[in-house]
Write a structure and sequence with these properties.
The chain folds into three domains: about 150 residues, no CATH class; about 80 residues, no CATH class; about 140 residues, no CATH class. About 35% of the residues lie in helices and about 20% in strands. The chain is built from twelve helices and 18 strands. The chain has a six-stranded antiparallel beta sheet, sandwiched between helices. Strands 3, 7, 8, 9 and 10 form a five-stranded mixed beta sheet that branches. A three-stranded antiparallel beta sheet has the order 4-5-6. Strand 11 and strand 12 form a beta hairpin. Helix 1 crosses helix 4 and helix 3 runs antiparallel to helix 4. The longest helix is centred in the middle third of the chain and has 23 residues.
Length: about 400
Amino acid sequence: MDDAPSAKYSVLSAKCSVQSPKRQDTSAMCQDTSAKCITQVCNSRGVDMTSQAVPDWAQFFTDEQYRLFLQAVHDYFTEQQIECQVVDDKVVVSKDTAARLWNVNDDIELGLYNLAHDCNQQNTTKYKQNVYEYFDRVLQTITDMQSLDSVLHDFSQAEGYIGVRIYSHEYISSITDKALLTRELVSGLLETLVFDLPEAVRPIGAEEAWPWGRFSDELFDIGKTNISRNYSFTTEEVDVEGDMFYVLSAGHFFAANLVYELQKYERLAGDERSLAGDSEVSAGERITDLDDAPDPQPGALVGQYGSLIAFPTREISLIYPINDPSVMFVWVKLLQITRELYSEGPGSLSASVYHYRAGRLFEAGASKMKISGESAIIMNPLIQQLVAEMHEEEGQSE
């Protein structure tokens, strides 16, 4: 399960920061709560909660930091009298315990990865407070979800909670083997239908949506509309070593949905080949028809040749409008920034960079090769083709 970090952190060289919300991402969490048992030291499948050895998934911790983090987790579940295990990067409550305590016929898995990332960004004296506040919210969330689940089978009740969230394919594959309602957005990223509940976000299972009797395209349209209406997608212009980027520090889990906002305003782009509708009306005039246009308007984010866009974490999106061949240098810079933010987390989404153009998204990541024993980034063919297109058009105009 992803956590909602409470710490502020900087984005790029700009002094943008985001105060993360006190909401929970229950994507990787089975729905259960409450309990009366004692914490159990893990069996051979798990990890001793008092162990000081830093596992591979938590290498950002020192030995002492990891010990303090794990001790805080141990103390919380001991005080709550919840029998559990730490298995890899999860706290697991067994199926038997879940059935006895919450009438749930499945294991409960509460992810530690993003919570650990959040703690790692703070002083060790804050670990216990972070861990306790986080799991307090988790347990309350599960209780609330149990109540909501009883009415979500009714489409008229569920419609307002439906959302669309973008996840990595790898992440979705890791959290469940159950059928979810997903569509491929671009290689490696999935549009996923979710319940956006008051204190939780979780994917919708195919069997949950079946009784509604609605086509999936309709459900995805409803989900996109709900998220667009309920969350802010205002960006901030940031100067990074002379190049102007737009940064969305969302403070919510749907930052990657900014791509849908761009699609809504695609006709505002300078590239007339991608414009739809009446060719007699200029892009500048068309904006007057959009009463809900945010500031800055997404049209400003789309250059003549589209935009580079990155989704390093669930709360951050980066955009660079493409208007000239300098994009080949900006692409390298954006790739480096994206990889750094992705590595730092929490809520890591994609370390790649994408090219947005004419309402479509194309992967524009990088590959590496050894040159004289040194690693070198190989320019993405898509970026090379784009620069060649610009030079060709420039030659034709002379």
